[in-house]
Amino acid sequence: MKKLEISHLNDNFFETISKEWMLVTAGNSSKFNTMTANWGGIGFLWNKPVVYIFIRPERYTHKFIETNDYFTLSFLGEENKDIHKICGSKSGKDTDKIKATGLLPIFTNLGNVTFEQSRLTFECKKLYTDFIKKENFFDNTIFDKWYINGGLHQIYIAEIVNIWSKD
């Protein structure tokens, strides 16, 4: 993978995140976990290029994000939906997702995990976190739709410190 400057990004991330999806991965070469996500975004905050993602605490990946300073967002392309389906429906507690999907882990210079199949990877350093709070919703129909049967997401805002491209 080669390093890409942020000014060379061409993706429409509304489309990329919502339709292509992404793998959120945290940990190191000895132990890591990955999960599929399509809630999040990219922007500019505190004079830094940032991403924001949402992870429920009951997800196995949550503990890896909590105990590491970095995580990666890997975009595999729409042709890898089968990988996303497994990583989004199986828990790393019970399933070896790497074996089940054929993902080929590679490690960045900072020791973070991405995959050979990734066409684009954001390597991200955590900056801020908080939980979604029921009392902060202006539109309670959103809470009723997304949180009536599950835990509230934890939001992470992270600086994009490196971008890796397959091209």
TrEMBL record:
Which molecular function GO terms apply here?
FMN binding; oxidoreductase activity, acting on the CH-NH group of donors, NAD or NADP as acceptor
UniProt cross-references to InterPro entries, sorted A to Z: Flavin_Rdtase-like_dom (IPR002563), Flavoredoxin (IPR052174), Split_barrel_FMN-bd (IPR012349)
Flavin reductase like domain location: 18-165
Q: What's one Pfam family here?
A: Flavin_Reduct
Q: Which Gene3D superfamilies match?
A: Electron Transport, Fmn-binding Protein, Chain A
PANTHER family this protein is in?
FLAVOREDOXIN-RELATED-RELATED (PTHR43567), HYPOTHETICAL CYTOSOLIC PROTEIN (PTHR43567:SF5)
- Family label: Belongs to the flavoredoxin family.
User: What is the protein's name according to its record?
Assistant: Flavin reductase like domain-containing protein
Q: Which organism is this protein's natural source? A: Coprobacter secundus subsp. similis
